[in-house]
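Figure 6 in text form: structure in, sequence out.
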């Protein structure tokens, strides 16, 4: 395919024989743009996959009789372009159980491909050294910045990856505990304060 396109302009498919005086060559290529023409199909835009091209040669022989000859071949356009893997960073807080789950949608920033629709892309994530899947999890031993790999595979099995940074915060981070301790106010002149202790004397 052409860059960022799901089709290709194909050249070099000119008939090797038949062009010349007293001949008429037409061609058809259903799905191509254009789909038909005269003399040479080179330069047409062919879609992804297989397209059958048929050349038809007509000529008048020495007896004035119109003769016809046909040939067919297949033009195959392949998608060898890697998809665009787009990552976005994320901040996540551990729950009361000390766990946090991050899904593909949390880190995918709009990955796309020249041929495969976004909904048909195979997008998975993984922590380094682990298997790819639909989600990753973090616990209280992974607080701080963590790297997650996002992998995108299109329908032609072309693959590209990108890295996302996940900042893991503790469940209590940002919480402020404030104790309202009552104040005991005493007069400035402590001499005016008398503490009496009475005892019964027999």
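Output sequence:
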């Amino acid at each position: 395919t052409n860059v960022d396109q799901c089709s290709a302009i194909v050249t070099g498919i000119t008939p090797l024989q038949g062009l010349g005086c007293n001949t008429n060559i037409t061609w058809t290529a259903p799905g191509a743009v254009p789909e038909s023409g005269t003399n040479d199909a080179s330069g047409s835009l062919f879609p992804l996959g297989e397209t059958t091209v048929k050349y038809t040669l007509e000529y008048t022989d020495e007896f004035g009789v119109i003769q016809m000859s046909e040939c067919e071949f297949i033009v195959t356009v392949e998608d060898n372009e890697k998809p665009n893997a787009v990552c976005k960073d994320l901040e996540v807080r551990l729950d009361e159980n000390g766990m946090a789950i991050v899904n593909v949608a949390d880190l995918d920033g709009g990955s796309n491909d020249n041929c495969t629709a976004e909904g048909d892309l195979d997008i998975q994530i993984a922590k380094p050294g682990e298997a790819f899947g639909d989600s990753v999890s973090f616990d209280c031993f992974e607080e701080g910045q963590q790297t997650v790999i996002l992998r995108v595979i299109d329908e032609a099995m072309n693959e590209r990856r990108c890295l996302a940074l996940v900042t893991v915060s503790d469940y209590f981070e940002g919480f402020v505990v404030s104790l309202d301790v009552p104040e005991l106010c005493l007069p400035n002149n402590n001499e005016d304060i008398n503490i009496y202790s009475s005892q019964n004397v027999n």
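Caption detail: The chain has a mean pLDDT of 87.
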